[in-house]
Write a structure and sequence with these properties.
Blueprint lengths: L5 E4 L1 H8 L6 H17 L4 E5 H7 L4 H11 L4 E2 L3 H13 L7 H12 L4 E3 L9 H14 L5 E3 L9
Parallel strand pairs: 1-2, 1-4, 2-3, 4-5
Length: about 160
């Protein structure tokens, strides 16, 4: 029996999944790709979230937050350990993540410390970004942590 890959689901995924169709064509495409991935590929993975994901999902419109939280309720959470906090602090400093985006460093650290195979995100500014991925690889190798494959749902679409 093959073991499913472990996937850490960052908040932008559920936000795109549950949001109203955007007028921005790029965001609209991301929403549609997210829905396709969710409907066709989600079951290929053991999916994990964290309290950070839940905190972010609670923000904004109360009804939309309720929908996001309902979708997330079935996934187990990863804990924020001292190792996670330590790696997040290093990521903040070495990846030059601004203080207002500290949760992005926590997402990276959670996926790394908990040995996730994938970190799925539409956050292409501080997470799913080629320059950031390169630096994460360098930091995690030096610090002795695993290196999750950081990607968007589009990269994991498994459609024939």
């Amino acid at each position: 029996m093959n073991k499913k890959p472990k996937l850490y689901l960052e908040t932008s995924i559920v936000s795109y999944l549950k949001s109203h169709p955007s007028r921005d064509i790029v965001i609209l495409a991301h929403q549609e790709i997210t829905r396709r991935w969710w409907n066709n590929c989600l079951t290929n993975y053991d999916v994990f979230i964290s309290e950070v994901v839940l905190e972010e999902a609670r923000q904004g419109n109360a009804e939309a937050a309720k929908e996001r939280l309902a979708v997330l309720a079935k996934f187990p959470g990863l804990s924020i350990t001292k190792d996670v906090e330590h790696l997040a602090a290093i990521c903040m400093r070495e990846l030059t993540i601004p203080a207002k985006a500290a949760r992005d460093a926590l997402h990276i650290a959670l996926a790394s410390v908990h040995d996730m195979d994938y970190l799925l995100s539409w956050n292409c500014k501080h997470i799913a970004n080629g320059f950031i991925r390169r630096r994460i690889r360098e930091v995690n190798t030096r610090e002795g942590y695993s290196i999750p494959t950081i990607c968007t749902p589009e990269e994991l679409l498994d459609e024939d």
